[in-house]
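Lab notebook, bench 4. Still working through the backlog of constructs that have no structural model yet. Next entry is a single chain of 321 residues. Request: give me the structure tokens for it.
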Amino acid sequence: MPDQPMPLRRRLLVTGANGQLGRLVIDALLKTVPAAWITATVRDGGTADRLASLGVQVRVVDYDQPATLDEAFAGIDRLLLISSSAVGQRIAQHRNVIEAARRAGVKLLAYTSLLHADTSPLGLAAEHRETEAMLRASGIPAVLLRNGWYTENETASIPAALAHGVILGSAGEGRISSASRADYAAAAAAVLTAAEEEGRIHELAGDEPCTMAQLAAEVSRQAGRPVEYTDLPEADYATALVQAGLPQGLASLLADSAVGSIQGCAVRRRPAAQPAHRPPDHAAGGKRHRRPGNFSVKRDRIEQAVEQRQPDWSRFAIPGS
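Model written out:
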């Protein structure tokens, strides 16, 4: 992953900039890019006060209304398409974004896909594979950011785990290489501001995979009380997530992804012919900093979650969104 910033002024656009990942991408860009160079698109302009206060341009778009995309993308050089959260509708929505980007003459489009999307058996992967195919067919210079699991999906339920002494899941002994949203956001910002990126595929995940049992052991150690991991059948785990307050669709996708970790879907693999790309070391004044994907850093996030009193289910999300 390149560390050098782009040498010339380019107008950058981030879709879904009000989302949990999008907000962090904007924050990461502002560390190296003037606000005037950045455009943020949102669905509801009434919720964009924070973005506007940062000095970035805010444009309201509707993925289902191509005319709004044409207006927003005019004059944009590089665009980050954060995958839509509307699972089941994403292919049509992403097609509209890609076609509008082509009409606008966008010079580079980065897309937040799924770890090993081309071979993944996860239910989430199908729409990502189709979007990647549309990008290839469009002729737009593109970069794929294949994001792995969010650490926040693991830590959101820790307060509930402490209350009941158990972490539920259906991952068996599968290993999960999670990283924080902030780390994936830093990778996206690095791609948007790099001098050379066209055609690259970045498989992004944490450096040190762990099992859910290891996660439970670390939570137990930090909290000073017993916490165990209980493995459930996929359907039972999805039901437990619904009972905890998650929507049925999201619960089913999360349970499917958990089972996928048994098949190695949540661990970054190193192809024989090329090195695996990781979330980047963050460059600041020439210094490098440790990656939040490391388990030593994940412990810090576990500690924060242990201190919370209530589960934060709003932190759950599917990779890429």
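Notes after review: The chain has twelve helices and nine strands. The chain has two domains: 12-148+179-204, 151-176+207-269+287-315. Flag for follow-up if needed.
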